[in-house]
Amino acid sequence: MFNAHKVRINRMFSPAGKCLDIAIDHGVWNEGSFLDGLEDIEKVVATLAAAGPNAIQMNYGQCDVLQNLPMARKPALVMRTDAGNPYNSTRHAITFDDLACQDDPVLPAVRMDAACVVANLILMPDEPDLYRQCIRNISRLRPLCDQYSMPLMIEPLVMRPNDERGGYQVNGDKKLITTLVRTARELGADIIKADPTDHAEDYPDVIQAARCPLLVRGGGWKDIRTVFTEAAAFLAMGAHGLVYGRNVYQHPNPERIVSAFMAMIHDGASAEQAMVIYEAKA
Fold it and tell me: Which of 98, 156, 159 has its CA nearest to residue 126?
């Protein structure tokens, strides 16, 4: 029996259930520091597609760049459905996360032949209405995803108070992350893109709570050796793959990092082996 939902999942994940998703859906957060390296979107997308990750995460208004590439095999499209301001370095009077297309937020993804849609589930101190908005968004998306056989990725984010260091700071507390991941699954996630915990050895509890493929997100820019070491640790704990953005697209040669990540995810390369692959591509 034909299963369109499974077909789309298969476009993102290897037969072994692994995935590297490169996120470039940063403009909708209205935080200028995220956009360094994304000025020429056509060049960025062509470079990333040629590097060969499993998926590229984008917004509706620019995903035509990926889908118009004349490639027989290209990364699957993961389409962002929401937009907001919780990542900004300055806290706003009103913090929001709204669906970008209120009428039917999943239909644009169907029209653009996406393999998956993604939305946030944000837990931020002193912002209970933001959490409620995210639940409303997901509650709107889930039945539409069922209608169109579109997989739903939920991104549970446990954030620190904005005034600690400025926006978009991850709280790596195991209990908070595990609970929010559990909530994402209970709301109907098919795939979860989750924060790393402070200690990688705690991650099996997060994976158990997910009960679906779980991809670890990379967050802000870090030294490349640190990136590989941290990624290897979470993959060793059972994560099904990675979602990285700035550490890839802000790098002078994204192909070097994509090649190393793909070897880690699909071939079981260690952090040291990934570094050798990275340096060999120089």
Answer: 159
**Which tokens go with 68?**
């118009």
DSSP summary character for residue 27: G
Half-sphere exposure of 45 toward its Cβ, with a 13 Å CA cutoff? 23
* Nearest 10 degrees: Cα torsion 196, 8, 79, 24: 60
The residue with greater pLDDT, 196 or 101, is 196
**Whole-angstrom distance, CA of residue 69 vs CA of residue 72:** 9
Q: What is the mean pLDDT of residues 163-188?
A: 86
**Beta-carbon contacts of residue 205 (< 8 Å; ≥ 6 apart):** 174, 178
Report the predicted TM-score, pTM, of the whole model to 2 decimal places.
0.95
The single residue listed with the structure tokens 């035509």 is 64
User: What confidence tier does 163 reach under pLDDT thresholds 50, 70, 90?
Assistant: low
For the record, the structure tokens of 83 come out as 């937009």
Return the pLDDT at 2. Answer: 63
Q: What range defines the domain where residue 28 resides?
A: 4-280
- Percent of the chain scoring above 70 in pLDDT: 96
User: Strand ranges (DSSP E) for 124-232?
Assistant: 152-158, 191-194, 214-217
Within a 13 Å sphere around the CA of 108, how many CA atoms are in the beta-carbon half?
Answer: 22
Tokens 């939305």 appear where?
119
Helix (H) or strand (E) holding 262: helix 254-267
Q: Which amino acid is at 264?
A: M
Report which DSSP code applies to 132: H
Give the CATH number, domain containing residue 225. 3.20.20.70
Dist CA 87 CA 90 (whole Å): 9
Q: Which of 116, 80, 113, 114 is nearest to 99 (CA)?
A: 80
pLDDT band at 102 (very low <50, low <70, confident <90, very high): confident
Amino acid at 36: D
* Total number of domains constituting the chain: 1
